[in-house]
Amino acid sequence: MTPVSSKLYADDVSLLMVLIDTNPYFWSSMNNNTSFTFSKFLSHVLAFLNSILLLNQMNQVVVIASGYNSCDYVFDSSTSSMQRAECLLEKLEDFVDKDESLSREESVDGVGFSLLSGSLSMALCYIQRVFRSGPLHPQPRILCLHGSPDGPGQYVAVMNSIFSAQRSMVPIDSCAIGSQHSAFLQQASYITGGVYLKPQVSDGLFQYLSTVFATDLHSRGFLQLPRPVGVDFRASCFCHKNTIDMGYICSVCLSIFCKHHKKCSTCGSNFGEARKQDPSASDQRR
Amino acid sequence: MPQVKIVARNFMDMVASLPTMKLDMLYDNSFICEAILRSLPPLAKKYVLQLLYIDKPISAKTMEEWVLPDGFSKHKVAIDRLIQLRVMTETYDRKKEATYQLNPKFQFNLQKHIVHGGVLPREPMPSNITVRLPSLEELEAYAAEQWECFLLHLISSSEAGKTTNMSSSMMKIFQRGLLSQRDDREPSRLTESGFQFLLMDTNAQLWYIIREYITNAEERGVDSADLIAFLLELSFHVTGKAYNINTLTDLQRSIIRDLSDLGLVKLQQGRKEGWFIPTKLATNLSISLADTTSRKQGFIVIETNFRLYAYSTSKLHCEILRLFARVEYQLPNLIVGAINKESFHVLSAVVIWMCGLQIISFLQQNAHPRVAERIPSVPENVTDQIRLWESDLNRVEMMPAHLYDEFPSKDVFEAACDFAREYGAFLWEDSKRMRLIVKADILNEMKEFLRRQKQ
Description:
B: 4 domains, four-stranded antiparallel beta sheet, three-stranded antiparallel beta sheet, 22 helices, 51% helix, zinc (chain A)
C-alpha cells in the first residue's frame, strides 16, 4: 500500500495520526462521573477528522485505537474514500471486540491503563514509512486523545517513542480528556514541541480540537497556542515501575532505580558501594 | 479595506472579482464552499474552522489576539482574503470597532459537511450498465495524450499549420492569445504568452485555458457563475467513475463536450445512455485553480558545458526543447541537445519578446531528480549566460521615428522639443545644430504644431 499516490504538496499539507483511547475501564469510569460518554467523544472526533480532511484535499488522517490489551489502525483516509464514519466505526467495533477477547483475567483494579506506548510506536512506524516513500511527503504530526492514567510500566517504551519522535521532528500534540493531567503526555509534547492541553469543558471538545489541534505545522509559527504551564518531569523507576522524585541513576546507561542495586539490570555494569544518606554519590533528582 | 489586489492570477481571484450577488449565490452550492475553503491561505482556513460554530460576530481585536507578533502580516492577508471572497463579512458596531462574522450560507454548508462528511455530487452509474470502463492507468494515459495533443497542436500549427483531430471551434477559443495570425495565408505563430504557456506546468496551463474559457463564455451569453459552479463541482467527482450524462443540464452537457476535447473528461456512449468519466485533470481542477505549488517528476539534466539531456519519450517535450535548444540526436528515451547563442537567437526570431527567466524556470522546474537535489539545479554559468544572451538581444531597441531639422529659430526648436516631451515621444535632440528626433506616432501632431509655429 502506498500512503499517498500523487505527490503535490503545499506547505500546509499534513498527515495527522490520531491516537484514541478506547480503554473500556476508563470510559466506564467517565460514564459514572461525567456525562461525557464514548459516543459523544467519537462524534467530536469524527467531526474533527472531517474538518481536517476538508481543509486540504491532500491532508491525510490515520486513526489508531489504543485499547487495554492491544492497539490497531482503525482508519486511514488514503485507503477509504467516502463514508468515513461508517468505515471507522465498523473497524473500531471489530477492534473493541478483539481487545475484549484478549483480556482474560478479571482482576483489573481501578481504571487500568491503555496501551499508549504501543499506539505511539505504531504511529511512528507509519510516519517512517511515509518518510521513506519519497522526498515529498505531507508534514506528519501525532495527536493523542488520551484519558486513562499513565501506566508506569510503559514508561521506558513511551520515553523511547518520544525521543524517536523528537529525532524525526514529529511533534506530539496531546489532549488529556480524563480528569487528571498526564505526565507522559506533558513530557511528550514538551520534548517534541507539540501542544499539551487539558480541556476544561469536555463537551466542547470539538472547539478545542479545531482551535488548537487543527493548526497545521506551518501556521504554528504565527499563532498563539497554549503553552506548557508546568510539566511533570517525574520518571518511573525501572525496577518497580513506580513514579519517583528521587532515585538512583546508572552512570553508564542512565537507567533509573528507586533502590540501590549492586548491578544495573539494563546494562549490567557493577555499581560501587553507595554511601547511605549521601545525595552526591550516584543519585540524582529529576 | 482589502489590501490584496485583484489580479485574476488564479481561479479564486476570478471568483473574488465576481459581483456580490453572484458570489452569494455560488455559496448555495456546498462544493463551491469546499473548494473555496481549500483555496484559502492556511491561516484563513484555520480561522474559518475556528469560527464555524460561533454565531456571534467576533471583534477584530479578539482575532488579533490569536496571532503572534511575527504573524501579523499573514493575519492581515488572511482576513483580507476572507472578506474579499465574502466568506466573512465585516461590520462596525456602535463603538466603531470592526467585527467579523462568517457568511451564514457558507457556515451552514461547511457545518453540514463536517457533521456528515463529504458527499458525492452525483451517484456514479452502476457497473452493469457501463460495461467496459477504462482502468485508472488507461484514463490517465488518455488524459495525458489528449492534453499533449492540444499542446502539440499549438506548436505544430505555429510551424506547419497541420491540423489535428480536435474540434476546431473550441480550439480557437483555447488558443486565443497563444497564437497570433497576421493574415490567413501565413501560418499562425506562437506569441510571447503562447511560449510562456508551453513552459508552464500542466496545472497552470489548465488554469490559463479555463480562464480563457470562462471569459469567452460570458461573450457567448453563458453565466460565468454557473460555469464556475459546474467546473468546481466537476472537480469533486471521483476519477474513473462513470456518471450519467442525463443528470446534467443542457449547459453542463455542452461544457462537458468542450472539456472532453482537452482530456478533462472521457465521453462514452452505451447502448441507451451516454456517460462521462472525469480524468485526473478534472479532479485536480480545484487544486490547480487554487495554487500552483505542485511538482512533477523532472526529466532534464543540464551540464555546465550547456549540454542538455532530457529523459523523456514525449514528443511534446522534444518540441518544447526544440524551441530554445538545438536538438542533436534522439534516442528512444533520451533527447540530447545543447543551448547556444544561435538557437537562442532563432527563438527570438520566432517569439518577439521572449524571456530568459522563463526558460531558466522551466529548466529548474523540470530538473531531473538527480540534479534537483543539487543547489542550484541549473548550473550558474548557464543561467548567467542565458540572462546575458537575453540582455544582448534587448540591447538595441528599434522604433520608427522622424528626424526634424532646419528649424527657423532657436525658439521654435525649443518649443518643438517641449511639445514632443509633453507627448512622451521625445527621443533625441542636438541643440547646437537644432536637430530633433521624435517617435513616428505623433507625426501628424508635430506637423500641425510646426505649421502653427510658422504663422
